[in-house]
């Protein structure tokens, strides 16, 4: 069997068994919502914006803050920026935000770098397995996978360069996230100045609160609930396989819109 290579100007590679490859060339890409607005206007439209002062007050007073908010409210992108603007990244300190998946770490870091107005890898960076796009001297907000932060504890057991560590998507309870919860609890005994943020998209945050609350420090943790979301999220499944998933998704979205 001879191998065939794709040439520019010819039909793109694909399998005609499960989809019509010709229709994929006519897909229209739409700009994201509010793309015509300025970066600052887009940030102010997020539901988390009205909780900014409350979040900064709680992180100053409490050692552990459990943030509960729906997907799309702006926890991942805005909270590290609020902390940097409030001075938590001064004097060489770094604000870390862990993600359970590599794609999330890279994409969110790119978005935050755009909002901050810096190149990716300068003031805002990310580090994942086999790839480190950050600068040890200039990076102030660092997104990483939870596994990379756990690896760093082997070199620096107290994670001394971080002033705030945010464990995002903690409700997924991945292996490294659970390990970090235990390690960071011990680190805070040696470094009470270290602030920990546990971010969750579910309302079951009392287990995190009970874990970080002890008899000697009953007021060391607090739950902050963020009300509101940018858009309603509902999952719709197709009952059977479709040859053109793009048209099927568009048709389903249209039917849902008509029913609403």
UniProtKB/TrEMBL annotation:
Helicase ATP-binding domain mapped to chain residues: 56-221
Spans through the membrane: none
Sequence segments annotated as region (Disordered): 1-22
GO cellular component: catalytic step 2 spliceosome
GO molecular function, one term: RNA binding
Sequence similarity: Belongs to the DEAD box helicase family. DEAH subfamily.
Stated name of the protein: RNA helicase
Lineage: Eukaryota, Fungi, Dikarya, Basidiomycota, Agaricomycotina
